[in-house]
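Standup, Tuesday
Yesterday: got the pipeline producing structure tokens again.
Today: sanity-check two examples.
Blockers: none.

Example 1:
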Amino acid sequence: MMNNPSTILRASNWNLVGNEWAVELLCQQITHGTTRHAYLFAGPSGVGRRTLALRLAQALNCTQPIEPGIPCGQCKDCKQIEAMRHPDLTIIQADSEGGTLKVDQVREARRALTLKPYQSKYRVTLFLRFQEANDNAANALLKILEEAPSYVVLILTADTPEQLLPTIVSRCEVLRLHPLPLDQVESFLHERGAEKDKARLIAHISGGRLGYALRLLNNPSALELRNEKLNEAQLFTTATRIDKFSYAEKVSKDKDAMRNVLSLWLSYWRDVLLRAGESSVPIANIDRAKEIESLAERVSMSEARRMVSELENSLSQLESNVNARLLAEVVLLDWPKL
């Protein structure tokens, strides 16, 4: 199916690169009138979950489709959906990434879904990053899934189905989206004007997540911030306790910024672990290969694994009401001393 010209054409018309099988499946359902009332698009952030959801909304409500399942992208409905300002499109998500999606937001969506579509065939509601929903919000969504009218299509996105209630997952058609091969992302970025070395670096940093790669390409300050934070991380192996306490105080003032820093450190230590274990898996931070290899020679594999585990746990704890400064202090005090 992946090499079928019609499948590639549909994915092209949906303006999606990769996961063509998902586009083909959704197009076939629209063509045969078998669209589900609820979907779960699962995969890592930046893999294209939201883009696929918006394309499905366009395909369902386009007034001038090129053919069944292929939106024109130019009609009023398509343009409004693309801008996420369509009267029959509702988007529910936490206020910030890593925040909490609350029950009141789901209840408000439930009230809206009792109304028939204003100008289109379907009323579409996107619940983005639904793994961030609290228990009450998840239970409220379960009621919507059980009672949704025929003119409603619900689309959830999450990192993995396992993060959600099994009763929610069982009521959705689950599409697991996957990152692209790194060379495909690199070629895509190079074709769009990125220098070859930069395209290769971004492809590796993104881990094949094209959406994330494009954000990095279009936001040079993100790469600059990454370099700054990884440079600081190198100093922790020789920093004093006072320096670490001072840095912990600074980095913990903004939870969103701290989440980004912890993610960068996690990526770095995963690379160290890969090199310590002599794995053939490509590292993400290829521009720092020499220092990563040097660090891998100076720390044990168990130490590298411990740092990866600790940073993963820290990111998880940051989503709760844990004391961010204390969390940062623990991570830095446990940093290997060389």
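Example 2:
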Amino acid sequence: MDLTHVDYQRDDSLAIICLNRPEAGNTLSRQMALDILAAATAARDDEAVRAVVFSARGPMFSFGGDLKEFQLFGTDTEKLATIADRWHEAQHILLTMPKPVVVGVNGIAAGGGVPMTLVGDIVLVDETARYRLAYTAAGLSPDGGSTWLLPRLIGLRRTQELIFENRELSAAEAVDWGLATRTVPEGAALEAAVKAAHTLARGATQAYASARRMLQASFENGFITQTNIETVEIAANLAGQDGQEGIDAFINKRVPQFRGMH
């Protein structure tokens, strides 16, 4: 892949996707949106990839949209809509791919940088990092899935506070509110995310995929519909190679050797 604003690497069974425009605060440009989409698609489609890391190079995660580029668009809404559409497609892939995603948040996540951090199953945040939604401060409304993700993670009232008052959260507050999983020492976000992802990549990735699918659907389904899906998924995992391996390992008190297969 010929990527200029995103760094894509393979590390054994991991795909590591890093925003790589630190000189511009890792702001979301048209090119970055295209690069994130290409990297997310590659990670999803590579059968050898069992877990994905999403992080950023440089001292900050992302300041959000590239407002200098956006200013050049003037009143041409189609140009901004194209960026948003490509980015939203990438966000959807990261949220729904049948592989666990670990996010490492270094430095500030502002504007569109906030929903970028929310695509992970595990979100590890540098203890010095900060979150600030900041859209309305620039006269803009939220995107990146903010209005879908945030109410599900932290509730409507706190989402309204972030959008309307642009409250800034510390790393500890982000964890306390439910935006992140836990803090890690300063400068360790990417390293910790890679370590966590390697652990997940050795796990029962088909079971993780089932869990991702079910959690995505849980807010739309009633109890019976959701538990019917649970029945289908656990039965498929039980009959699969990883399920058989996991049960045998548990009974015989040994470490399972999962292969990520049904």
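Quick observation on example 2: Strands lie at 6-11, 14-19, 51-56, 101-105, 108-110, 122-126, 130-132, 168-170, 182-184. The chain has two domains: 6-201, 205-251.
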